[in-house]
Amino acid sequence: MTQKTLKTAIIAIIAMFMANIANAQMKVAILDFKAGAGVEQADVDGVSSMFGTYFIDPQKFTLVERTQIDRVIAEQGFQYSALTNQQMVRIGQILNIQKIVVGDITVVSGQYNVDVRVVDVETGAVNATDGATWARSTSYRELMKNLATRLMTKMNVVIGAATTNVTPTVKPNSIVTLLGYLHVFPEDLGNFTSVPNNIIDALNNDVSNGYNTWRLPTNEELSLIENNKSRVQGLTNSDYMTIENNRAGRVRLVTNRETQQERDEIYEAIMNRFPQDSLLNSLFNSRKTYNHSDTLEVYIQLHLFYVIYLDWPNVHLSLAKFFGEQKDYDKAIKHAKKALEIQPDYDEAMHVLTYIYVCDYETYNNNKSTEMMEKYAKQAARFGNEVCRNFCNANNWSY
Question: CATH code for 10-162?
Answer without folding.
Answer: 3.40.50.10070
